[in-house]
From TrEMBL:
TM helices/strands, residue ranges: 111-136
Signal peptide feature range: 1-20
Name of the protein: Uncharacterized protein
Sequence ranges of Basic and acidic residues compositional bias: 39-51
Chain intervals for the UniProt region annotation (Disordered): 29-56
Organism annotation: Magnetospirillum sulfuroxidans
Keyword Transmembrane helix: yes
Length: 278
């Protein structure tokens, strides 16, 4: 087969389903016109024949006129117009209306009264603020006083127990132990150094007793240390090798007496500090 025939056959095969699905045109069947019935106004007209003779119609007898009763006509009703489709009224433009002023129910307060009320309110708020600040400051100081008293009470109690363990001179061994014990006891002052800026929170007599105790112990420790250094220098001058550079027995007794004076009445100070912790 030639290419043209193959192309035509392929086109027919493709278009056949489309033609099969295409709707067929509807043609109305031709109907014969119904015969026209003969009426009085429209007689049936017959075709003329050669032997047709027209007949003279018979004149009808004069009939008496019929009496037609007159019926009063009903009043004509006015024509009713068909209801028109009611259209919604156009929306009114959104206009921001100012609120109507309502009569004030409160009496008008003069300007001087308003100013006086403002001044009084400011003074009252300032007074309340000062009172609140003072109460907060008082609470803070009370808390600091409790902490200072607690730390000092614990430290002074430790120093008192350490002084009870200090040996008495005059022998050499006791002198060496006395020097080391006094110098070590004087170094227990961490709480006092931390609380030096808060001693004003304590009562003046109590703060004075605490300061005097620490100062006296430190003075005795410095004295004992100096005496030990002097003894060491004397040992070097005398070319004495070995032994401990102990101060004189009289110097150590004197230092012990001063130390006992520093610890006299310390129990009352500790009791007062513990009372402030509550």
């Amino acid at each position: 087969m030639s290419p043209s025939r193959l192309l035509t056959l392929a086109f027919l095969l493709i278009a056949a389903p489309v033609w099969a699905q295409a709707p067929t045109p509807l043609t109305a069947p031709i109907q014969d016109k119904p015969p026209i019935a003969a009426t009085e106004d429209r007689p049936v007209v017959e075709d003329e024949r050669p032997d047709f003779q027209p007949l003279r119609p018979v004149e009808p007898e004069e009939a008496a006129p019929a009496i037609i009763p007159v019926v009063p006509a009903a009043p004509a009703r006015p024509p009713i117009a068909p209801p028109l489709a009611t259209m919604p009224p156009p929306a009114a433009p959104l206009v921001a209306h100012a609120p109507a002023e309502q009569p004030s129910l409160m009496p008008v307060i003069p300007a001087w009264a308003v100013a006086l009320l403002l001044v009084a309110g400011a003074m009252l708020s300032g007074l309340l603020g000062v009172v609140a600040a003072r109460s907060m400051r008082r609470a803070e100081l009370n808390e600091r006083r409790r902490s200072v008293a607690a730390s000092l009470a614990v430290e002074m109690e430790t120093r008192r127990l350490a002084f009870d363990a200090v040996p008495l001179p005059p022998n050499v061994d006791a002198g060496v132990s006395f020097v080391s014990a006094v110098i070590s006891m004087a170094g227990i002052d961490c709480a006092f150094r931390a609380a030096q800026g808060s001693l004003f929170l304590l009562a003046p007599p109590l703060a004075a007793n605490v300061s005097v105790h620490y100062a006296a112990v430190q003075r005795v420790a410095d004295f004992v240390k100096g005496q030990s250094m002097a003894a060491a220098v004397r040992m070097l001058q005398a070319n004495r090798l070995g032994g401990h550079p102990c101060p004189d027995a009289g110097a150590m007794r004197e230092a012990h007496v001063e130390m006992a004076a520093a610890f006299r009445g310390l129990d009352k100070v500790i009791l007062s500090l513990r009372a402030l912790q509550r």
